[in-house]
Design a protein that fits this description.
The protein has 203 residues and is of the alpha+beta class. It has three helices and eleven strands; from the N terminus they run H-H-H-E-E-E-E-E-E-E-E-E-E-E. The radius of gyration is 21 Å and the shape is globular.
Length: 203
């Protein structure tokens, strides 16, 4: 009797184990993928190709190399940067102008993970002189700014408004927060640039 029970137990336990593993994977994805408003879902889908960095380069997004980090947060004018990082910015100057296209962000943001770049967010960016004297709006959100450029990946004189949208990397502070406490810049890396407070830059 005992031997005859083994096939039955195996038949019951294997599907249950496989189901548990599938559920675990779904929970892991849910914990790292942000829940998005319906209007952001098609934007995320349209930009998904940029998970491949070479696709971003082919379309004119050029890396600023540095990983921008606000380890202690900062207050710059009217803009508050909570502790967290922004990541590595890829800027497409062809998309910069007074008009905003939800499908054409000026900046793509990547997180360095184990020597590779993982797509984390998109950023819409308008230089102050092109904004017409008021903060732009997109997705029902008012852009932060104006603020100085994030030195050293851009000159401080490049004052601008911007809106970060964490489409791929869940952000504990929300989809539109400027920094992400869950994103990490490699500590001690020569291309990690701490911003704010008494941070200093190593070149």
């Amino acid at each position: 009797m005992r031997r005859s029970m083994f096939p039955l137990l195996f038949a019951v336990l294997v599907p249950a184990t496989a189901h548990a593993q599938a559920m675990s994977k779904q929970m892991d994805r849910a914990s790292t993928s942000p829940a998005l408003a319906p209007e952001l879902v098609p934007v995320k889908a349209a930009l998904a190709k940029y998970a491949d960095v070479t696709a971003a380069l082919r379309d004119g997004y050029l890396s600023t190399v540095g990983c921008i980090d606000y380890p202690k947060g900062a207050q710059e004018g009217t803009v508050t940067f909570p502790p967290g990082a922004m990541g590595v910015h890829f800027l497409n100057m062809a998309n910069v102008g007074p008009k905003l296209d939800p499908m054409k962000p000026q900046i793509l943001i990547y997180e360095p993970v184990n020597g590779k770049l993982k797509l984390a967010a998109a950023e819409w960016f308008v230089p102050e002189q092109l904004a017409g004297g008021k903060a732009p709006m997109l997705f029902g959100q008012t852009f932060a700014g104006p603020m100085d450029g994030h030195y050293p990946v851009m000159p401080k004189s490049l004052r601008h408004y911007d809106l970060h949208v964490w489409l791929w990397k869940a952000n504990p502070r929300g989809t539109f927060a400027p920094t992400n406490g869950a994103l990490k810049c490699p500590a001690g890396d020569p291309y990690t640039y701490p911003e704010g407070g008494d941070a200093h830059h190593h070149m």
